[in-house]
Write a structure and sequence with these properties.
6-stranded mixed beta sheet; alpha/beta; 748 residues; globular; 30% helix
């Protein structure tokens, strides 16, 4: 008998207690079975860039040992690949390992937006841009689930900090939610159909995400059509009955039966409809179809090689003066910094993987070049004499043709559970870089960090900077491949690097106070803010260099409807090396009644080209590429007007653009007595009728003095304006005006 038939036939045979038991965990990582009904227990485990299947003690902070698995590049690195194929290949590999380890649901990916560079968990998130995050997240989920296990896209919603993460209220307006913080989730849900969505710890506008019916039912299920299981983040449930009523199906981890009893008691007291319980039970039982036990095995060597290949796609070459990179194998090289020998390749917390092996960059560099000296430079644990370490490093640098300094952040500086207080590198590392740069003929800095770091104290002293982020267990070898040109760098920044922390749009509002964090910057997040206010950054969103050069020309934009278009460009590799270029399509407009960012990323693709090769690329711009979310109307609107399609080298540098006019939507606003006089006067139907009433039946423009008076009163609600001005409009006339304005006339 098929599982769906079993559900329909057997649900009524289950007792209320049995049904309630299915809606919370048996323990930390597994669900409760009902063997008599043929319902198995399934295992969920942390991801998303590897499988953290714990063998002994259970925890959600990565403190206990887990079974060895491949640590692939985390999302911070994958975001800078700008390549959904990279995300998909990681997702598929994680799926294979999950299946081999008996895991039914791998918790990830995280698609929360990087609102502030201080967020301690930014290494688990892709980007500051919702389109880039959504495309990569959807690719990861689809590929992972094709291997058998389910995914859990997280953390829904507005989870953009670790400070007071279990109780802080993210106070954010609906347009900002719809345009910035929802779209990545929406894309993953509608395109990749994840098995589960994980609710976040925080409150959203005062209501815990775990019991926020608007989030979990109205938006997620009714608007986006999600049919899977809503699972709590571990320990996120405040009120189990309220959460179930709001749409949260599965509470994790288990509560020793306490939650089950609350559900049973609420149903029997008439406080909870049993139909709600039944709906969640059906969804949880459907999820158990992903239970296959331990199935197959994975090739650890092949997956390590894959991790190395993909890591090289993710690093971003930020600076390369006078062709400092790639390095020559015959050069005398000084490798400096403890990270070269003891790599930082992943973040701390629940996603911490027990890697099958780890490549050190120092070993990989020595495998490619015969003359390599090493100096520790600094210590991660504070041991040793900092001055002596620094002086030894400077001496090694002075004897070399080029010095390569490995710098970055340790887990003491960034991890799940707390936010950073600064974007500066540790002072001991800054002093080291400057000392080495003063002594060396040429200096290269390789960064290992899960979040943006400032370069202002040393940037101009060095010749090249490779932003490695956190590259996974094979990152050391991947960095060596990039430094020596075995692989041509092709990463692009998925987040802006500011000059100062004070320049960031959320600076005055992060991480909040008194239990609330106000999203006062609205939709102006990341590059949207910097470009709109024309504030320079050290390196803009989308920036990245290559060992070859590219040109983009032949921009053609063709309207394909009232609110859609296609964009065509030709990309040519004009250099002497094969390489990859990211085509970035932005849309700029002032159309509509809301403030729009200077430009927004609306399409992208990564293209691989041989030297001298050209390729014509066509990308589609759908309705959403031109739309804003209209809160009063409760829907997406494309305003009639001009839209400039821009090809960006990055978010700050536009290399080609053209403007099209779109017919857009014909929107007639609804006005009532609570609407302002200005809104009434601009209404196409009610406005002229109101002028006739106010001017005694005249249809011509009012006298100049009268017009100025109307402008002064334009912000007053209509009802108060009539009272304040002593204007007595007959009730029937007022009702007719309100009906012309689209209201039902009840207020009149």
């Amino acid at each position: 008998m098929a599982r769906t038939e079993l559900d329909a036939l057997a649900l009524n045979a289950l007792t209320l207690e049995q049904k309630a038991s299915l809606l919370s965990g048996r323990d930390f990582w597994t669900t409760k079975p009902l063997e008599e009904a043929g319902i198995p227990s399934i295992t969920l485990c942390d991801g998303p860039h590897g499988v953290r299947r714990e063998a002994g003690g259970s925890d959600h902070l990565g403190l206990n040992e887990s079974i060895p698995a491949t640590c692939f590049p985390p999302a911070v690195a994958v975001g800078s690949s700008w390549d959904p194929e990279v995300a998909a290949r990681i997702g598929a590999a994680v799926g294979r390992e999950g299946r081999a380890l008996g895991v039914a649901v791998v918790l990830g990916p995280g698609v929360n937006i990087k609102r502030s560079p201080l967020c301690g968990r930014n290494f688990e998130y892709y980007s500051e841009d919702p389109l880039l995050s959504g495309v990569l997240g959807a690719a990861h989920v689809a590929a992972l689930q094709a291997e058998g296990p389910g995914a859990s896209v997280k953390h829904f919603a507005a989870n953009n900090q670790e400070t007071e993460r279990m109780r802080v209220s993210a106070d954010v307006d609906e347009r900002t939610l719809r345009e910035i913080y929802f779209p990545a989730f929406e894309r993953v849900v509608t395109q990749a159909r994840p098995a589960t969505v994980m609710c976040s710890y925080n409150r959203v506008n005062g209501v815990h995400a775990s019991q926020n019916r608007w989030l979990l039912t109205d938006v997620l299920r009714r608007e986006w059509g999600f049919t899977g299981v809503v699972v709590s983040d571990w320990g996120a449930v405040q009120d189990r009955v309220a959460a179930l009523a709001a749409g949260l199906d599965l509470e994790m981890p288990g509560t020793g039966g306490a939650s089950d009893r609350r559900i049973v008691d609420a149903v029997r007291a008439g406080d909870l409809d049993e139909a709600v319980v039944n709906a969640s039970v059906r969804r949880v039982v459907a999820l158990t179809e992903r239970h296959h036990g331990v199935s197959g095995a994975f090739d650890a060597d092949a997956h390590h090689a894959l991790a190395r290949e993909l890591a090289a796609e993710c690093a971003v070459l930020l600076k390369n003066e006078d062709g400092t990179l790639p390095l020559s194998a015959s050069a005398r090289i000084a490798v400096i910094g403890e990270f070269a020998a003891r790599p930082r390749f992943q973040g701390g917390g629940s996603s911490h993987i027990n890697a099958t092996r780890v490549d050190a960059a120092l070993d990989a560099i020595r495998a490619l070049a015969p003359d390599v000296a090493y100096a520790q430079g600094f210590s991660l644990d504070g041991s040793g004499d900092a001055r002596e370490l620094r002086e030894a490093a400077a001496e090694a640098a002075a004897s070399a043709d080029v010095a390569v300094v490995f710098a970055g952040l340790g887990e003491r500086e960034e991890s799940e559970g707390f936010d950073r207080e600064t974007i500066d590198l540790p002072a001991v590392q800054v002093e080291l870089i400057r000392a080495v740069a003063a002594a060396a003929r040429r200096t290269v800095v390789v960064l290992s960090n899960g979040g943006v770091v400032s370069m202002e104290d040393w940037h101009d002293d060095v010749d090249a900077v490779l932003e490695g982020w956190l590259l996974g267990q094979a990152g050391g070898s991947a960095v060596a491949d990039l430094l020596f040109g075995v692989v041509n760098p092709s990463g692009r920044l998925a987040e802006s690097i500011p000059f100062r922390l004070q320049d960031t749009p959320s600076y005055l509002n992060f991480p909040g106070e008194a239990g609330h964090v106000r999203y006062g910057e609205g939709v102006m997040v990341g590059y949207r803010y910097y470009e709109t206010v024309e504030l320079p950054v050290r390196y803009p969103f989308g920036h990245g260099l290559s060992y070859t050069t590219f040109t983009v020309d032949g921009l053609t934009v063709v309207r394909t409807g009232d609110d859609t278009a296609t964009v065509t460009v030709r990309v040519t590799n004009t250099g002497e090396r094969a390489g990859k270029h990211v085509v970035q399509v932005y849309v700029s407009t002032t159309a509509g009644p809301v403030r729009r960012p200077a430009r927004e990323l609306r399409a992208f693709t990564k293209v691989s080209l041989a030297p001298g090769e050209s390729r014509t690329i066509t990308l589609s711009l759908d309705r959403r590429a031109f739309a804003y979310y209209d809160v009063p109307l409760g829907r997406w609107v494309v305003a009639p007007g001009d839209y400039t399609i821009q090809i960006g080298e990055n978010a700050s540098s536009v290399v080609a653009e053209t403007t099209i006019s779109l017919d857009g939507d014909s929107v007639v606003p609804v006005v009532s007595l609570d609407s302002t006089l200005g809104e009434w006067l601009s209404h196409p139907l009610a406005g002229p009728a109101l002028v006739r009433v106010l001017t005694g039946g005249k249809s011509e423009r009012p006298e100049e003095d009268d017009e100025n008076g109307l402008r002064m009163a334009s912000s007053m609600p209509m009802g108060r304006f009539l009272t304040f001005a002593g204007i007595d409009i007959p009730h029937t006339t007022l009702r007719e005006l309100v009906e012309l304005g689209g209201s039902d006339g009840a207020a009149a």
